[in-house]
Amino acid sequence: MNIPIVISAFGTTSRALNTYSFLDTLIRNCFSGHEILWSFSSRVITSKNSGIDTSGFPGPEDVLQKLKQQGYRQAVLQSAHLWPGHEFHKLVRIAHNCPLDVSIGLPLLSSPSDYEKICPCLDIIADGHENQALIICGHGTSHPAWTGYFALDHFLRKRFGKRIFFALLKGYPAPAEMIRHVQQAGFESACLIPFMLVAGRHFERELTGPDPDSWKSQLTRAGISLSAINHGLGMMEGVAEILCDHIREALAQSLSL
Q1: Side by side, which strands form the sheet with 5-9?
Q2: Tally of structural domains, the chain
């Protein structure tokens, strides 16, 4: 009986489901002999999806319990989060209290090697937007893992130079500081890259929406024209490859138990 792989993402929206479907296909191709299951750590988001039957989107603890009932003794619980923040540590607690022997697959960016691997995923975007500032937009977190954004900035600048700027929807640095830096660097146009697994409601409202406080509106008032990438990291094959590497590491850990 092969070890099942449970992917745990944050929540579900219609755009998120498209992203998860894309990732699911790539992950299944890598682990064809394993059962692949999805779970969702945020019941808040799933409960707000109009027209979607949320009973079909179980939490990770529910999926693991069902696997126990089916006779499994081990499982891999793979985080589909970007950094080891609040949601990841919630997964660790779930795994600790689970009736199975669970190996945790680390989040997307968990080591220097992960940061090195994520940078080439943005090559096609950078090449298609020459002479523009590249604005990396992160969600932000109150968890100490927020410092990972500065590690990301370091690795991206190694690859793309002084074109890289970043800001967060929540926390430091704020958009106003980023805009000031873009102006000081002399850029008149920029490409906004949502550094999130899914470019959902935050992208549509707070980043590119018509609201006067949206990033697009603020940049426009500052004399900077803006184009934007309309999908999240989850639609990039290189991102799936990093997650698959983490699944392999977790499977190896399971086999050593």
Answers
A1: 36-40, 5-9, 74-79, 101-105
A2: 2
**DSSP assignment letter at 185:** T
Give the structural domain span for 176: 113-232
Residue 48, pLDDT above cutoff 60: no
Q: How far is CA 90 from CA 62, 72, 79, in A?
A: 14, 22, 10
Query: Do 214 and 172 share a structural domain?
Result: yes
Question: Taking CA 22 as the corner, what is the angle to CA 17 and CA 23, rounded to the nearest 5 degrees?
Answer: 95
Say whether both 177 and 93 belong to one domain: no
Residues 126 and 216 in one domain: yes
Q: What are the structure tokens assigned to 2, written together?
A: 């092969």
User: Quick one: tokens of 228?
Assistant: 């934007």
Read off the CATH number of the domain in which 125 is found.
3.40.50.1400
pLDDT of residue 12: 59
- Is the CB of residue 165 less than 8 Å from the CB of residue 171? no
pLDDT value of residue 205 = 80
Kindly tell me the sign of the dihedral angle through the C-alpha atoms of 157, 162, 164, 168.
positive
Q: Enter the pTM of the model.
A: 0.90
Task: Please tell me whether residues 21 and 84 are part of one structural domain.
Answer: yes
SS3 18: helix
User: What's the burial of 13, exposed, middle or buried (CB within 10 Å: 0-12/13-18/19+)?
Assistant: middle
| Type of residue found at 93 | R
Q: How far apart (Å, rounded) are the C-alpha atoms in residues 129 and 253?
A: 42
Which residues on adjacent β-strands are paired with residue 9? 40
90-97 long-range contacts, CB within 8 A, separation 24+:
90/41, 91/8, 91/41, 91/60, 94/60, 94/61, 94/64, 95/64, 97/61
